[in-house]
Amino acid sequence: MSSPTREWLSNIASGPVEMVPVHLIVPGRSPRVGGQRSAEYIRILMETDTALPPIIVHRPTMGVIDGNLRLLAAVEMCERSIGVRFFDGSREDAFALSVYVNVRHGVPLSLSERKAAAGRLVMTHPEWSDRSIAATTGLSHKTVSTERRRASGENAQSHTRLGKDGRVRPTDTSEGRLAAAAILKENPDASLRQVSKIVGISPGTVRDVRERLKRSEHPIPQAVRDRLDPNASRAQDTGRPHAHGSEIPMENPGAIAIPIQQVLLQNLRNDPALKFNERGRLLLRSLAYSMIDLDQWVRMTGEAPEHCRATLAKLARANAESWSALAVRLEAGGPTRLSSRLSQANG
């Protein structure tokens, strides 16, 4: 039975293998319940005489889709780099692909793990047929149908809808509106469709957010805010700036950091001055490597020993200060001077 994941894997296999520094790659979202690791399997990988196949990595997050154990084996053997094939789809598609490949080789997924993955896929990919999800998870289509009914019975899909364009969007667009507002403030020239794709709301909703920002109104309509928090003090949309100037209240800034970075990075990738010369491409690759979701950093540093956390905090603060200093220098230099420096470097 064919499935989208099978086509993705075929396209990846026909792409190039790149040698990527090990320290730039992070563990991906695994379909294994509890994040199981096999020490015995890692030992076998370390002792093999043949070259291991390249791992598959989600380029936007640098998270492993297939090959977590191979990456761990490379770390144990103090390898500096590892062969990588990149996948450029969404996070949800990356998880689906991870399920597909983990069902078919390496340490196989258990029945309970495959059922859990199917339950997740019917929510993230509701437009997929039971047979497509079955082909991805290695289950029967009848089992997938049962998981779909269970998810629907628990009202798991009540917060999403499938649009005419085939995209799944939340019925409560509040978080998406806030994310869209942040992106539009950072990049006013971003297209409605581009922002829509990143934050998961319709282009029409993005247009409404843009118009609200022009009128200095809150991106979320007052009626929606009243429904979400009836006890909150009512801040009328009067057309005047908010109490803090043009700032939009963001209850969870970390949740929108990556979408802003993605739209800005995509604009840079589309710029011929960068993508058609080696130094520009090196800059774009380095920027892509630096884009790791705040949640991933929280998970990774959360596993660090207690005595290391103070040092990690200092390192995070120092990195933030370095990026801030770089931003000041770039803004002071201006686009003309920056372009000339890049041209001189390439010359």
Topology:
Elements (H helix, E strand, L loop, with lengths): L3 H10 L4 E4 L17 H9 L7 E4 L4 E4 L1 H9 L4 E7 L3 H14 L6 H14 L5 H8 L3 H13 L6 E3 L5 E3 L3 H13 L5 H8 L3 H12 L7 H7 L25 H16 L2 H4 L2 H13 L3 H9 L6 H38 L1
Parallel strand pairs: 2-4
Antiparallel strand pairs: 1-4, 2-3, 5-6
Strand composition percent: 5-15%
Order of helices and strands: HEHEEHEHHHHEEHHHHHHHHH
Radius of gyration: 23 Å
Placed side by side, the strands forming the largest sheet appear as: 1-4-2-3
Beta strands, count? 6
Shape, per Cα inertia axes: globular
Biggest beta sheet attributes: 4 strands, mixed
What is the distance, rounded to the nearest whole angstrom, between the alpha carbons of the first and last residues? 53 Å
Mean pLDDT: 74
Helix content: 55-70%
The secondary-structure class comes to alpha+beta
Spans of at least 5 consecutive residues with low confidence: 154-166, 233-258, 335-347
Give the helix tally.
Answer: 16
